């Protein structure tokens, strides 16, 4: 995949959709602690439970939606969800900002947040199915490599924008609504430019590698794809992602408790993620970290313990929001550890998904292992809400 091909045609349209979505999501997630600060009816632990439940519902709903997209059209289905995302941000602006209903009730405050996270999970497999549906198979690796770099940069800019947003004399919810409407409106415009028949050949048959099944839909008997032992490894990965995700789930709320001055820590987290991802590349190329081998098991155990340690570090930071030096030092250590634990878990998941099952079921296997991170992350939000409440920082 050449740089020229990446910047023109369908690949360029897909890249814009993914990058703009990454920026908007990063900004919203990073700002959520400050958003609920404007809503007396909603506290941090409740917000995390709402986010976790809605994201979890979105993960499972995305499987059903993927089946629909396989039969109708990936692009048409994506257009519909993007339109709903625009409406979700409009609702956020009215509910939290203009009408202020979020100030008086938990449902009024939490519903727009739940809707945005739910739709975010719905759109993920559809967006991920666009490259194989519109590009040649031998172009995908180069495209995804360049796209990952662009996406990480967008996440960093979104985190950086949080600090700018909270420093301005504006209503956070209205500002997020304006950015969200603009971002997903742009995504919708670029999606309209894609062919509506993407992923659905003229014959009506859907090619395996072009299908949304690669992101969450299975045409084979669900439980027969993996052996009993491999299902055990799947559950281990899900559990690890659930533990590793608790610390990061709590971070935006801890930062908002410290004040607007601490928002730069979110950008630092993105920089740490880019650095950890880059430094792990040589190890990934040299070794295969699968749960079928000892190195993968050791890495997963270490990631799990690191995730537990991160929760304790976040708790320490919560107790020292008034001590700037201690708070910053603990949070920086926590953020780096978060990125290491998440990257390690992801690397093991990658190795395990290509080592499990049979090659003829590889698409379904990859989809199943991809769900460990999504489901584990949603569960971590719920657990993070309980942990936040237990520390007593409401």
TrEMBL record:
Keyword Cell division: no
Superkingdom classification of source: Bacteria
Transmembrane segments: 12-36, 48-68, 80-99, 111-130, 150-168, 174-194, 234-255, 261-278, 298-318, 324-350
UniProt xrefs under InterPro entries: MFS_trans_sf
Keywords of this entry: Membrane, Transmembrane, Transmembrane helix
Protein's name in the database: MFS transporter
């Amino acid at each position: 995949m050449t740089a020229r091909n990446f910047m023109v045609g369908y690949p360029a349209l897909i890249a814009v959709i993914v990058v703009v979505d990454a920026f908007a999501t990063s900004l919203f997630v990073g700002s959520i602690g400050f958003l609920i600060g404007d809503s007396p009816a909603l506290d941090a632990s409740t917000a995390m439970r709402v986010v976790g439940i809605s994201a979890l519902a979105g993960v499972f709903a995305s499987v059903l939606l993927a089946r629909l997209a396989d039969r109708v059209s990936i692009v048409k289905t994506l257009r519909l969800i993007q339109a709903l995302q625009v409406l979700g941000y409009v609702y956020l602006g009215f509910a939290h900002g203009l009408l202020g209903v979020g100030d008086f009730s938990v449902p009024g405050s939490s519903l727009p947040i739940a809707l945005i996270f739910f739709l975010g999970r719905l759109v993920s497999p559809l967006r991920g199915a666009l490259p194989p549906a519109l590009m040649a198979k031998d172009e995908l690796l180069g495209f995804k490599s360049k796209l990952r770099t662009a996406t990480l940069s967008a996440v960093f800019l979104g985190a950086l924008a949080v600090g700018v947003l909270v420093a301005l004399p504006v209503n956070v919810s209205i500002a997020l609504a304006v950015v969200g409407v603009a971002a997903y409106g742009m995504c919708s415009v670029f999606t309209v430019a894609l062919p509506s028949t993407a992923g659905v050949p003229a014959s009506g048959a859907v090619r395996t590698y072009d299908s949304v099944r690669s992101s969450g839909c299975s045409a084979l008997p669900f439980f027969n794809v993996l052996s009993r032992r491999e299902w055990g490894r799947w559950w281990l990965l899900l559990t690890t992602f659930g533990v590793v995700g608790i610390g990061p789930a709590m971070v935006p709320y801890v930062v908002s408790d410290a004040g607007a001055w601490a928002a730069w820590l979110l950008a630092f987290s993105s920089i740490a993620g880019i650095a950890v991802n880059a430094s792990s590349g040589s190890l990934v190329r040299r070794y295969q970290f699968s749960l079928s081998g000892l190195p993968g098991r050791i890495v997963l155990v270490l990631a799990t313990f690191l995730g537990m340690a991160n929760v304790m570090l976040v708790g320490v930071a919560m107790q020292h929001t008034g001590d700037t030096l201690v708070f910053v030092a603990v949070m920086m250590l926590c953020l780096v550890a978060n990125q290491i634990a998440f990257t390690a878990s992801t690397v093991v998941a990658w190795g395990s998904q290509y080592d499990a099952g049979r090659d003829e079921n590889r698409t379904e296997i990859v989809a199943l292992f991809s769900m460990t991170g999504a489901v584990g992350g949603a569960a971590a939000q719920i657990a993070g809400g309980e942990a936040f409440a237990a520390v007593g920082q409401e």
